[in-house]
Write a structure and sequence with these properties.
Shape: globular
Radius of gyration: 24 Å
Distance between the termini: 37 Å
């Protein structure tokens, strides 16, 4: 396996395996240093000393380099720059072409198809074609790899009917199949990954082959990761990245990153900034702030397996006992928007348009009246709320929820837990009230089944609603957003009215870059943000 580009003159390979590495407060060594000179004296990218390097800070180390199993944010950032996805998001959360140019379904919905570009190639000279797409999805299904394996329940087989066209056979109509796979599945080279015994166990830790804008060339584990530009990347207007080299450097915390950004050691902080830090940087003329919305939401869920939370009046009383705007302003410094207490948030305009739900009004007296009318006394209303104590936002607003609920005669006992304990109790549904957040809920046609189906993997509240089940079936088999919109909106209304999920806000993430850089393409979520392939390929300095 050889990785070469017109700009890459050397590849340094280090054997790293798949084990997670814990970073113990180490500061990157010389994080803004350019690549070492190559044998021809032109520098690592094959050009002269004025080559452009974009230095990015991260607080999470790379765990592994296999894009199908990567499980840290930095894993995804690095591998997304090498292994293309068929679709990406626009700024309104809609799926738009990347490697794919067009897609659709047969009339009965049991065949799906996608057309891909004909001008993409791997850095070893092999063409990227439909066979790579077929190989990737078949490997995921056969070995049940990663999150994509859970998205392809209807998938039976795929065929490359031409170098640019893949046709998928489905066991049933699934209107979210193409957009889910298109957005989440990185395409890997068959001629590399197909040579290993197990794709899921393939470390992919040397001799990297890329069809993205950059290819990994240097690894200093726990310190820095250097990627060099490729010659051919047709997904940007210039046809090649403006940046010659991208360097990810690992920092112990965001404060150290901010110092490095201000000193010029960093050009971009990859991770989202806490609101207080963003506010601090807002007046710094050397820094440009970019704001993007989350694709998920912060929320509370009430365990309806436990009385009296199985009573909708109790859930409504809890919902009206919280001042959501105060939480958004006080805890998040205004870096959040109302979700209108809806699981179809304003970020997804195509789904929310015309829904017209209103946020639960903060009204302790209404809460008291609901409880009195339902026959409950204050002695009946003591609940434990669990949350991840390491999450500073939720830890703070949990205290506000407790204090505000007390005004309505509801006692909430806070249980901030170590993360593994929190996750275990959540999975076991061992709580009264769960406080948390979803990072990415991008495809309601499929995600709603996870959230609200009786056997849904993340149906923490215990929703069992026959009408929702029928509507989910209608939505999941709809082959266009237009056909799915009505049943999805009706699900959102039921969830709102029955308080199956108390959606509190959509966070607005802030990212910081040097004002010397322009051309970034911000995308929703802290996963894509500024650190997405198109954004980094078209960024420029000066």
């Amino acid at each position: 396996m050889g990785s070469t580009t017109g700009r890459a003159a050397r590849t340094l390979a280090m054997s790293v395996g798949l084990s997670a590495l814990v970073l113990a407060g180490c500061v990157p060594s010389n994080p803004d240093a350019p690549g070492e000179d190559s044998a021809d004296g032109t520098g690592g990218s094959g050009q002269q000393a004025e080559d452009t390097t974009l230095n990015i800070g991260t607080t999470a180390d790379v765990v592994n380099y296999n894009p199908l199993v990567g499980n840290s944010r930095t894993d995804t950032w690095v591998t997304n720059l090498m292994y293309p996805h068929m679709m990406t998001l626009d700024d309104s959360g809609q799926k738009v072409p990347a490697l794919a140019t067009d897609w659709g379904y047969s009339e009965d919905g049991t065949t799906a198809w996608v057309e891909i570009r004909d001008d993409m190639e791997w850095t070893d000279g092999e063409a990227l074609d439909a066979d790579d797409v077929v190989f990737t999805i078949d490997a995921i299904q056969a070995e049940q790899i990663g999150t994509v394996a859970g998205m392809i329940g209807a998938y039976e087989s795929a065929e490359a009917v031409s170098p640019t066209r893949v046709e998928f056979t489905l066991s049933r109509p699934d209107g979210a199949f193409l957009t889910s796979v298109g957005f989440w599945m990185p395409v890997v080279p068959e001629h590399i990954f197909g040579e290993v015994e197990s794709v899921a166990e393939f470390a992919n830790d040397s001799d990297w082959v890329s069809a993205g804008p950059f290819v990994l060339s240097t690894v200093e584990r726990g310190q820095r990761y250097v990627l060099e530009a490729v010659d051919n990347y047709p997904l940007v207007e210039s046809g090649t990245p403006n940046v010659d080299e991208v360097v990810f450097s690992v920092y112990p915390d965001v404060n150290t990153e901010v110092l490095a950004l201000r000193s010029g050691e960093l050009d971009l902080i990859g991770n989202a900034l806490p609101p207080a830090v963003a506010e601090q940087l807002s007046s710094d003329e050397s820094v440009e702030l970019y704001t993007v919305p989350s694709l998920g939401w912060a929320h509370m869920q009430y365990n309806m397996r436990r009385p009296p939370l199985d009573d909708v009046d109790v859930r409504r009383a809890l919902a009206h006992a919280v001042d959501y705007e105060a939480i958004r302003q006080v805890v998040l410094g205004g870096n959040a928007i109302s979700a209108d207490s809806s699981v179809l948030t304003p970020v997804f305009e195509q789904w929310q348009d015309g829904l017209d739900l209103e946020e639960y009004a903060y009204d302790p007296e209404q809460s008291r009246q609901l409880l009195e009318d339902a026959g409950y006394s204050e002695e009946d209303l003591t609940f434990e709320m669990i949350y991840d104590q390491a999450d500073p936002m939720i830890s703070t607003w949990a205290e506000l929820v407790r204090d505000q609920s007390a005004e309505a005669g509801i006692t909430i006992e806070l249980a901030g837990l170590e993360r593994n304990t929190y996750l275990s109790r959540t999975a076991d549904r061992d709580f009264d009230i769960y406080a948390g957040s979803w990072a990415v809920i991008d495809e309601p046609q499929s995600n709603f089944s996870l959230l609200f189906a009786p056997d849904g993997f993340i149906n923490y509240a215990g929703v069992e609603d026959a009408e929702i089940n029928e509507l989910m079936e209608e939505a999941s088999t709809a082959l266009s957003p237009e056909d799915a919109k009505e049943p999805l909106q009706e699900i959102a209304r039921i969830v709102h009215d029955q308080v199956y999920d108390n959606v509190m806000y959509v966070e607005q993430f802030n990212f910081a870059a040097s004002s010397n850089w322009t051309g970034f393409e911000p995308k929703p979520s802290d996963l894509l943000s500024l650190v997405n392939p198109q954004s980094l390929a078209q960024a420029s300095s000066g």
